[in-house]
Amino acid sequence: MYHHILVTLDSRGRSEQILAQLPPIVWQHRSAVHLLSVYPPMRAVVVDQQTIVYAHQLESQASIEALGYLDRVAMQLHERGLSVSTEVRFGEPVETILATAQASATDLIIMPVPWCRGDGHLMMAEVTTQVIRKSPVPVLVVRLEA
C-alpha cells in the first residue's frame, strides 16, 4: 500500500497527463501526493563583466512560475479527495528527486517520461533511468503522449 507518493512534474504542461494514469490504489487509499519540480541550479547572467541578472533572481522567477503550475495541478487532485503538497527545488535532478523521496518518507515515485526513438527502440529519459536504478522504493514510469 502506498501512503506517500512523490510525483515529478515539469512546468511544460504535458506532464500532467500523468494524473489520468495514477494507479487505482492511490485513489482507494487516499494516498498523500507530493508534486515536485526540479530545476538545475541557475547561474547569473554576466555581460562584459557586469552581472545583469543574479542566480537567486532567476531561481525566484522559475519558482514562482513552477509553483503556479503545480498549484493548478494540486487543485485538480485535491478536488478529487487527495491530500496534495507542492515543492520546487534546484539541484542535480536525480539526487534531488531521491533526497526529496527520502525526506518525505515516499513509498512510490511516479515519473512522467517522454519517449524518444533511438536506434529503433524507445528509450527513457536519462534522469528517469537513473532514478529507477538508484531508488530504494518502486518507480512507476508513465509514458507521455506526443
Secondary structure topology:
Layout: E1 4-8, H1 24-28, E2 32-39, E3 45-47, E4 50-53, H2 55-79, E5 83-90, H3 93-103, E6 108-114, E7 116-118, E8 121-123, H4 126-134, E9 139-144
Parallel strand pairs: 1-2, 1-6, 2-5, 6-9
Antiparallel strand pairs: 3-4, 7-8
In short:
By secondary structure, the protein is an alpha/beta fold. It has helices at 24-28, 55-79, 93-103, 126-134, and strands at residues 4-8, 32-39, 45-47, 50-53, 83-90, 108-114, 116-118, 121-123, 139-144. Helices cover 34% and strands 32% of the residues.
Describe this structure in words.
The protein is 34% helix and 32% strand. It is an alpha/beta fold. The chain has a single domain (4-144), classed as HUPs (Rossmann fold, 3-Layer(aba) Sandwich). Strand 3 and strand 4 form a beta hairpin. It starts with a strand and ends with a strand.
Low-confidence stretches: none
What CATH calls the topology is: Rossmann fold
How would you state the average pLDDT, rounded? 85
Beta fraction? 25-35%
